[in-house]
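Sorry, explain these tokens?

***
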Amino acid sequence: MPRPRYIPRASFSSITTPNEVHQADVLYTRHIKSKRTIYLFYLNLVDVASRYKASVPIGVTLRGPAQSIKNMQGILTSSTIAKCLVKIYDNPENPLIWPKVFLSDKGSEFKDECEKILRKHGVKIQKAYSKNTMDIVERYNRTFTEIFYRILDGKDLLITFPRPLDSIQYESLETLIKDLPNVITTIVKDINNSITRHLGISPAEAIKRKSIISKSSYPRDGPVGFDEEKLSGDVLVRYLLYSSDQEGGRRRAGDLNWSSHIYHIRQSMVQKNQPVLYWLEDDEGNSPKRSFVRERLMVIKEAQLPPRWVLSN
């Protein structure tokens, strides 16, 4: 069967309290030299309920006559991320405080010292199994990159920006780069003061509220939650494959759309205004480390497969 054209997703709309859940990710961008510091990465942080953002540039200061970095190993460490978190959360001018839940990927930079400082402040740590779980911060990465490079390339071409970027006034790209940390601060401030379609207000206004109602990014055009018809536990299903499930981490024309193995429904979860989520398991007790909505499952009525050794080869 072909891949579905539209797939709804479970959203974070059930999280309504600011500073309850934060998503964090490291953004890799073009290396930029500002004075004697070369900025290599950016720690991006988003409050899930209010969509309030924070970014900290991560760089290394050149010493002596060095003009470039030949070996960048050891720069992006858990100790570096821990210092960035302290810089964000301990800033009295920043409304973001230590959250109840901190969600990140499984990168080594979010382990060790980073986990130690989070536990010290009573923060629960969760790791995402897929990029889809990190949709909010991944979307911020895209927005940040688009604006950031638009400024760099625009200043290089002497382009004048409309609002909200007209507050960034520099005579040339060279003078802009020398003041890079302030440019990053201005970009994040403009994003936080822009109205989002999920909230109907700006993140800067939403972070001040006690409770926030947001819209889903991928809503279902039909019954959801307790009104949705739930699959029974005795059906057999295949699940829709991600590109990362394929060999080499990318899709090719001859790749399968659906899993070759067949699974049982091990568990399901129903929430108000959310698609029903399903967890799968095969006859040998193996299961994908993620949940699925109904559109990502194909019900098998009569399954006749070749022997397992044929499928494995």
Notes: Residues 236 and 264 are 5 Å apart (CA to CA). The longest helix spans residues 135-156. The beta strands are 21-34, 37-47, 53-61, 101-104, 124-127, 236-239, 263-269, 277-281, 297-300.
